[in-house]
Design a protein that fits this description.
mainly alpha
Protein backbone atom coordinates (compact mmCIF):
# COMPACT_ATOMS: atom_id res chain seq x y z
CA UNK A 1 0.00 0.00 0.00
CA UNK A 2 1.45 3.41 -0.96
CA UNK A 3 2.46 5.77 1.80
CA UNK A 4 -0.04 8.58 2.45
CA UNK A 5 1.52 11.99 2.01
CA UNK A 6 0.19 15.11 3.67
CA UNK A 7 0.76 17.62 0.88
CA UNK A 8 -0.06 20.67 3.02
CA UNK A 9 2.45 19.48 5.62
CA UNK A 10 5.13 19.11 2.95
CA UNK A 11 4.37 22.55 1.50
CA UNK A 12 4.62 24.03 5.01
CA UNK A 13 7.91 22.19 5.63
CA UNK A 14 9.30 23.76 2.46
CA UNK A 15 7.89 27.20 3.33
CA UNK A 16 9.44 27.01 6.81
CA UNK A 17 12.79 26.14 5.23
CA UNK A 18 12.43 29.08 2.86
CA UNK A 19 11.73 31.37 5.81
CA UNK A 20 14.79 30.12 7.69
CA UNK A 21 17.00 30.70 4.64
CA UNK A 22 15.51 34.18 4.14
CA UNK A 23 15.84 35.11 7.83
CA UNK A 24 19.41 33.80 8.13
CA UNK A 25 20.90 34.65 4.73
CA UNK A 26 18.53 37.12 3.09
CA UNK A 27 16.05 36.65 0.32
CA UNK A 28 18.74 36.68 -2.35
CA UNK A 29 19.93 33.32 -0.97
CA UNK A 30 16.53 31.74 -1.53
CA UNK A 31 16.66 29.24 -4.36
CA UNK A 32 15.07 25.86 -4.95
CA UNK A 33 18.41 24.21 -4.17
CA UNK A 34 19.02 26.16 -0.92
CA UNK A 35 15.46 25.66 0.29
CA UNK A 36 15.60 21.94 -0.51
CA UNK A 37 18.86 21.56 1.42
CA UNK A 38 17.44 23.45 4.41
CA UNK A 39 14.26 21.33 4.36
CA UNK A 40 16.22 18.09 3.98
CA UNK A 41 14.39 17.15 0.78
CA UNK A 42 15.32 16.93 -2.88
CA UNK A 43 15.13 19.89 -5.24
CA UNK A 44 12.70 17.78 -7.27
CA UNK A 45 10.32 17.61 -4.32
CA UNK A 46 10.42 21.38 -3.95
CA UNK A 47 9.66 21.72 -7.67
CA UNK A 48 6.81 19.22 -7.32
CA UNK A 49 5.06 21.49 -4.81
CA UNK A 50 6.14 24.87 -6.19
CA UNK A 51 6.64 25.28 -9.92
CA UNK A 52 8.20 28.72 -9.56
CA UNK A 53 10.02 30.76 -6.95
CA UNK A 54 7.05 33.18 -6.97
CA UNK A 55 4.69 30.33 -5.97
CA UNK A 56 7.04 29.30 -3.18
CA UNK A 57 7.37 32.90 -1.98
CA UNK A 58 3.60 33.50 -2.05
CA UNK A 59 2.96 30.38 0.02
CA UNK A 60 5.66 31.28 2.55
CA UNK A 61 4.17 34.77 2.83
CA UNK A 62 0.79 33.22 3.56
CA UNK A 63 2.41 31.19 6.37
CA UNK A 64 3.89 34.39 7.88
CA UNK A 65 0.49 36.08 7.62
CA UNK A 66 -1.17 33.13 9.32
CA UNK A 67 1.33 33.24 12.19
CA UNK A 68 0.74 36.98 12.53
CA UNK A 69 -3.01 36.45 12.58
CA UNK A 70 -2.66 33.90 15.35
CA UNK A 71 -0.58 36.35 17.43
CA UNK A 72 -3.17 39.11 16.89
CA UNK A 73 -6.08 36.82 17.73
CA UNK A 74 -4.42 35.62 20.93
CA UNK A 75 -3.54 39.18 21.98
CA UNK A 76 -7.07 40.43 21.35
CA UNK A 77 -8.57 37.51 23.25
CA UNK A 78 -6.75 38.77 26.32
CA UNK A 79 -8.63 42.08 26.14
CA UNK A 80 -12.03 40.64 26.99
CA UNK A 81 -15.32 41.52 25.35
CA UNK A 82 -15.71 44.81 23.45
CA UNK A 83 -12.38 46.53 24.20
CA UNK A 84 -12.06 50.27 23.56
CA UNK A 85 -10.99 51.00 19.94
CA UNK A 86 -7.67 52.61 20.91
CA UNK A 87 -6.68 49.62 23.05
CA UNK A 88 -7.78 47.24 20.31
CA UNK A 89 -5.61 48.99 17.70
CA UNK A 90 -2.61 49.24 20.03
CA UNK A 91 -2.88 45.56 20.89
CA UNK A 92 -3.20 44.50 17.25
CA UNK A 93 -0.28 46.62 16.08
CA UNK A 94 1.94 45.61 19.01
CA UNK A 95 1.23 41.95 18.17
CA UNK A 96 2.36 42.58 14.59
CA UNK A 97 5.56 44.43 15.45
CA UNK A 98 8.84 42.50 15.79
CA UNK A 99 9.26 43.42 19.46
CA UNK A 100 11.08 40.29 20.63
CA UNK A 101 13.30 37.51 19.34
CA UNK A 102 10.31 35.28 18.65
CA UNK A 103 8.76 37.77 16.23
CA UNK A 104 11.95 39.16 14.68
CA UNK A 105 12.47 36.21 12.34
CA UNK A 106 8.94 36.57 10.98
CA UNK A 107 9.54 40.32 10.73
CA UNK A 108 12.78 39.84 8.77
CA UNK A 109 11.07 37.43 6.43
CA UNK A 110 8.05 39.70 5.96
CA UNK A 111 10.35 42.64 5.19
CA UNK A 112 12.29 40.53 2.71
CA UNK A 113 9.02 39.54 1.03
CA UNK A 114 7.91 43.15 0.79
CA UNK A 115 11.21 43.99 -0.91
CA UNK A 116 10.78 41.00 -3.22
CA UNK A 117 7.24 42.06 -4.09
CA UNK A 118 8.33 45.65 -4.73
CA UNK A 119 10.02 44.43 -7.90
CA UNK A 120 7.47 41.67 -8.62
CA UNK A 121 4.06 43.19 -7.78
CA UNK A 122 2.23 40.50 -9.75
CA UNK A 123 3.57 37.84 -7.37
CA UNK A 124 1.13 38.56 -4.52
CA UNK A 125 -2.22 40.07 -5.42
CA UNK A 126 -3.62 38.73 -2.14
CA UNK A 127 -1.24 41.02 -0.25
CA UNK A 128 -2.87 44.07 -1.83
CA UNK A 129 -6.31 42.78 -0.89
CA UNK A 130 -5.20 42.05 2.67
CA UNK A 131 -3.76 45.56 2.99
CA UNK A 132 -7.00 47.05 1.66
CA UNK A 133 -9.06 45.05 4.15
CA UNK A 134 -6.81 45.91 7.11
CA UNK A 135 -6.84 49.60 6.22
CA UNK A 136 -10.63 49.48 5.96
CA UNK A 137 -10.90 47.78 9.34
CA UNK A 138 -8.67 50.40 10.97
CA UNK A 139 -10.62 53.24 9.33
CA UNK A 140 -13.83 51.74 10.68
CA UNK A 141 -12.72 51.94 14.30
CA UNK A 142 -10.92 55.30 14.25
CA UNK A 143 -12.81 58.23 15.78
CA UNK A 144 -15.08 60.29 13.54
CA UNK A 145 -13.23 62.65 11.27
CA UNK A 146 -10.46 60.16 10.57
CA UNK A 147 -10.84 57.99 7.54
CA UNK A 148 -8.90 55.88 5.10
CA UNK A 149 -5.97 58.31 4.93
CA UNK A 150 -5.46 58.20 8.71
CA UNK A 151 -5.76 54.41 8.64
CA UNK A 152 -3.18 54.22 5.85
CA UNK A 153 -0.90 56.48 7.90
CA UNK A 154 -1.23 54.22 10.94
CA UNK A 155 -0.44 51.18 8.80
CA UNK A 156 2.61 52.99 7.36
CA UNK A 157 3.71 53.91 10.88
CA UNK A 158 3.48 50.25 11.88
CA UNK A 159 5.58 49.17 8.88
CA UNK A 160 8.16 51.90 9.55
CA UNK A 161 8.41 50.98 13.22
CA UNK A 162 8.94 47.37 12.15
CA UNK A 163 11.83 48.38 9.89
CA UNK A 164 13.40 50.48 12.67
CA UNK A 165 13.02 47.65 15.16
CA UNK A 166 14.62 45.15 12.79
CA UNK A 167 17.44 47.56 11.97
CA UNK A 168 18.13 48.23 15.64
CA UNK A 169 17.39 51.97 15.39
CA UNK A 170 14.51 51.61 17.90
CA UNK A 171 14.10 49.54 21.00
CA UNK A 172 10.74 47.91 21.70
CA UNK A 173 10.03 50.65 24.26
CA UNK A 174 10.78 53.43 21.76
CA UNK A 175 8.57 51.83 19.12
CA UNK A 176 5.66 51.44 21.53
CA UNK A 177 6.13 55.03 22.74
CA UNK A 178 5.94 56.25 19.12
CA UNK A 179 2.85 54.12 18.53
CA UNK A 180 1.20 55.48 21.69
CA UNK A 181 1.99 59.07 20.70
CA UNK A 182 0.39 58.55 17.28
CA UNK A 183 -2.66 56.86 18.76
CA UNK A 184 -2.99 59.77 21.22
CA UNK A 185 -3.12 62.14 18.23
CA UNK A 186 -5.85 60.07 16.58
CA UNK A 187 -7.91 59.39 19.69
CA UNK A 188 -7.35 62.69 21.52
Amino acid sequence: MPKKVDHQERRTLIADALMRVAADQGLEAVSLRHVAAEAGVSAGMVQHYFRTKDEMMAFALSVVRERSQIRVTEAIAGLGVDPPPRLLLRTMIAALLPLDEGTRDDGRVALAFLAYLAVRPAAAPSLREGTRQFTGFIAGILPDGHGAAAAAGLLALMEGLGVYLLGGQYTAEQALDALDAHLDLLFG
